[in-house]
Specification:
316 residues, alpha/beta, six-stranded parallel β-sheet, 14 helices, 53% helix
């Protein structure tokens, strides 16, 4: 059994995770689909180097922004980190707000058949040149069930659906339904962080302002000058597209700030809905308006009551 601190963006997961990790002798496994990218620190609110010196973190700075990083890859990596952490008699603490990363552990995805890397690389390069409207048309032909049944997401997820269908001969919806599981599901117990909606939005707006003040535009300028393209997988993160538009003279800084704040609030609403409807339901809910020490005490007491306690993983 593994604990997972989850909740919407901007609610305070990082601060609580550091406090809890110190109390339970834990190492943090990040479940954030954008913090995996190198060079994307300010806009993803990545934990600072000095904080990583206090608590070991896994799942940060794994790939360059031009490289996709899937939930399936996260699940494989996370299972290895969990084994390594447990071997050190420490507690793996899952932390993040990316729901499909969590689901990849509790409801494992299919095991992909081997594909010749050259074919995959050429196809990805071709897909990079297609716009989202064209990608949707392709997916409508190759995997109509996926396009009709669920939100296929943005460019990266549309391209992923096309890639799987063309390279494996079967649509992604078939693989999710019929494909062999990549691994056994993990028993994860959720600790859901909650806050009054209006206060959460105020925190999001303040944090977004702080990101721009801390140099988000300079961070994006460095990425672009280093060869990262505006449509690369990492650059789809909220804030990065808008910052790139400012640098290209397409958007005023003030308007970019407002758009990022609005988009982040919408994302937080989607996260809240997702986590509140998860199976199993959250085992513990934490009101983050409480002092940080009080929040950590509640999590520590809850985990010790489970019988696992610090320094071990129950049933993992």
């Amino acid at each position: 059994m593994l604990p997972a601190l989850v909740g919407p963006t901007g609610i305070g997961k990082t601060a609580l995770s550091l406090e809890v990790a110190c109390r339970l002798d834990a190492e943090v496994i990040s479940m954030d689909s954008r913090q995996v990218y190198r060079g994307m620190d300010i806009g993803t609110a990545k934990v600072r180097p000095e904080e990583r010196g206090l608590v070991a973190h896994h799942g940060l700075d794994l790939v360059d922004p031009g490289e996709p990083y899937s939930a399936a890859r996260f699940a494989r990596d996370a299972r290895e980190w969990i084994r390594e952490i447990a071997a050190r008699s420490r507690l793996p603490l899952l932390v993040g707000g990316t729901g499909f990363f969590l689901r990849a552990l509790t409801d494992p995805v299919f095991r992909e058949p081997p594909v010749e890397p050259g074919r995959r690389g050429r196809l990805r390069e071709w897909l990079t040149g297609r716009n989202p409207v064209e990608l949707r048309r392709w997916l409508a032909v190759l995997d109509p069930a996926r396009l009709a049944g669920t939100d296929p997401g943005g460019r990266h997820r549309l391209s992923r659906g096309i890639e799987v269908a063309l390279l494996t001969g079967r649509p992604l919806s078939w693989w999710h339904r019929e494909g062999p599981l990549d691994a056994e599901p993990l028993d994860v117990r959720l600790v859901l962080l909650e806050l009054d909606r209006a206060e959460l939005y105020r925190r999001i707006d303040r944090r977004t302002e702080a990101m721009f003040e801390a140099g988000l535009l300079d961070e994006v300028r460095c990425l672009l000058e280093g060869g990262v393209r505006p449509h690369d997988p990492g650059m789809t993160a909220t804030g990065y597209r808008e910052a790139a538009a400012v640098l290209e003279g397409e958007l005023a800084p003030g308007e970019a700030l407002r758009r990022v704040q609005s988009a982040t609030r919408r994302y937080a609403r989607r996260q809240l809905t997702w986590f509140r409807n998860q199976r199993p339901a959250p085992s513990l809910r934490i009101d983050v308006s409480l002092p940080l020490a009080a929040q950590a005490e509640r999590v520590e007491a809850w985990w010790r009551r489970t019988g696992a306690g610090p320094g071990g993983v129950a049933g993992a």
